[in-house]
Amino acid sequence: MIKFFGIVIYIFFILSVVGPIYSFLTLQPKRAQEFWSRLAVKTLRLQFRYLPNSKQVQTNKRTILLFNHRTQGDFFIHDVVSQYSANFLARWMVAIAFPMLAIFQQLFTQSVWFFRRGGNDLNNFFKWIDNKFDKASRPNLLVYPEGHRMHESDKVGKMKTGMLQYAYDRKIDTQIIIVLGIEKAFNERKFHASLGPTQLSIKVDEIIKPDKFATFELFVEHIQAMFKKNFEETYDYQYKQS
């Protein structure tokens, strides 16, 4: 447990200060979050293993990236996997935990979009996202459609449809990305952390275009089916073939 908290303090507090300071000293303030994520992945000695049929992450136009969610380590791992193209939705408590990183990204990259839970007006929320997209330097938005951490589950969670509605209404490309194996290196529920090396299995699926579906319900049905299919394929690759 001492090792776990030591690694947590180093990655989430020390490196979250070192990353922004380094970006400032090298005159690259917009890369503050990138430097933190890169350092965190290097610290845990994570090795990325892509499935043979994996595609490239779309980084040249606005895209909703649908990731699975396992642990708190996803925040920096998924930043790297997205090729530093993704903006993140986060509650304001995150800013309190990582003040230096939050200040730098708000001033320069605006890649973490802080919000308060509880709002029921999706139209206003969607307009707020539109505004954030217009100001951000990164083209994509990372979304966890399962809505919460699934930890070591061997099944996908029930899809939350709020951000799928946004993608459908705005006709924004979506892309499913599955990352498995992080719990071997970082698992806050078991107070476990390892300095590796640890292999992660990654599947980046093809682009899904919402305007190809006649109704929102058909779009959601397809997303659910493809998310499940890609998860199961990646799960087998990570845990049954390694």
UniProtKB/TrEMBL annotation:
It holds the Pfam family Acyltransferase. InterPro entries: Plipid/glycerol_acylTrfase. GO terms for molecular function: acyltransferase activity. Keywords: Membrane, Transmembrane, Transmembrane helix. The keyword Zinc does not apply. The chain crosses the membrane at residues 7-25, 89-108. Residues 53-170 form the Phospholipid/glycerol acyltransferase domain. This is Phospholipid/glycerol acyltransferase domain-containing protein.
